[in-house]
Amino acid sequence: MQHGRDRTRRLAQLDHEHVWHPFTQQQQWTSRPPLIIERAQGAMLYDTEGNGYIDGCSSLWTNVHGHRHPRLDQALHDQLARLAHSTLLGLSHPPAIELAQRLVDVAPWGLKRVFYSDNGSTATEVALKMAFQYQQQVGATGRTRFAALQEAYHGDTIGAVSVGSIPLFHRIYRPMLFDALALPAPVEPGGDEEAQCRDRALALLDAHGHELAALIVEPLVQGAAGMKMHTRDYLRPILEKARQMGVLLIADEVAVGFARTGTLFAMEQVGVTPDFLCLAKGLAAGYLPLAATLTTEAVYEAFLAEPHAHKQFFHGHTFTGNPLACAVALASLDLFEEEDVLDRVLDASRHMAALLKNWVGKPGIASVRQTGVMVGIDLVRPDGTPWPPEAQMGHRVCMKARDLGAVLRPLGDTLVLNPPLSIHDAELTQLVRITSDAILAEQKA
């Protein structure tokens, strides 16, 4: 036991001395010992001293079938015995080929071509660059702008940040970025606010649609915006208007894809065929970095020409289509069928809804939003007024939840619940109870 504590202290010291963590104020980070996760199983994470925590955020929304699933472990082991990595620049390999076919088969819109990268930012960056180059190569040279929803988040590379509009994340980089048209987006699904946002968005498209190369959206749930949600009645008319005006449609399903919203892809509920589908996070079930941008044959054909014409897509990544990640992704798609994952997600979302049903109106909770297993809980003071930023209430609640046995990550003062799809009802009940207890404890602190 003492050896475990000594090891934890040594690792914590090294972390504080050398590791720069993402989206983290390091001054605050180094003021307390870090939680160091060493192993995991199912929906549980375990630290270096053996303490267990429910993975309430699916290891940043990536884990699908649970940690250490035997089928996924075996797929990784088997592929490792054959090939760890080989480039797709000038070569190919079986896992990338077979996964591309499977993705085309499960995408319900006739998307025929798959371009691999390695994370959500690169998946959207690929789509933006493809859309821009496509418009130029088909003669629509005046289409040089992009549109996105207000408070969009599509990643952290320059193009992805340019179509993002969360001030906290993006304001400082504005001088580096290209201009994008921001379309009004609601916080809550349904209701007057959503209808008003839709009508204003349609008016902006009427005015600027002729300038746009593409419109990029996170369908149904804007995750990093604070789990802002909308219905198909908001999104579908906007997408249809854009398409009528010759604007390409990019569905960023990095966060919402692979059953998070209740269907394999959120766009199935919207009922509109995208020109690009961006996937990452759950694509390799949370095991390895892997992303894919799917597109149509029409887009693909606009890049075909003799080599000297230089119309090819000049973009790529060293670990594009990594064989290990592709092998796990193939096994993950098998599990969706074999383990009735979509039915399980429906059951889990109903169970979550029942657990959260009476939360709205409780002191300190302004709103509870849910789509599938994705939940956003807005925290306020007991009197209903916002917490000041310096109170860091979302952060404090998550730290308290950690003490009680669950790992959560806030978006400002919005708590996010987004567990592995494999989570059992008892674990889900415990996760919601811990969240409730943490909120109550910090309100009284």
Please tell me about this protein's structure:
With 445 residues, this protein is an alpha/beta fold. It has two domains: 35-65 and 340-444, Alpha-Beta Complex (Aspartate Aminotransferase, domain 1), CATH 3.90.1150.10; 72-338, 3-Layer(aba) Sandwich (Aspartate Aminotransferase, domain 2), CATH 3.40.640.10. The protein has 16 helices and 17 strands. Strand 16 (409-411) and strand 17 form a beta hairpin. The chain is globular.
Q: How many distinct domains?
A: 2
Number of strands: 17
- For the record, give the distance between the C-alpha atoms at the N and C termini, rounded to a whole number: 32 Å
Q: Supply the CATH superfamily name of the largest domain.
A: Type I PLP-dependent aspartate aminotransferase-like (Major domain)
Q: Report on the biggest sheet.
A: 7 strands, mixed
Strand order of the largest sheet: 4-12-11-10-7-5-6
Subunit arrangement of the protein:
single chain
What would you say the CATH architecture of the largest domain is? 3-Layer(aba) Sandwich
- The count of helical stretches stands at 16
Taken from the alpha-carbon principal axes, the silhouette is globular
- Give the fraction of residues assigned to helices: 40-55%
Chain-averaged pLDDT: 96
CATH topology of the largest domain: Aspartate Aminotransferase, domain 2
CATH class of the largest domain: Alpha Beta
Q: In percent terms, what proportion of residues is strand?
A: 15-25%
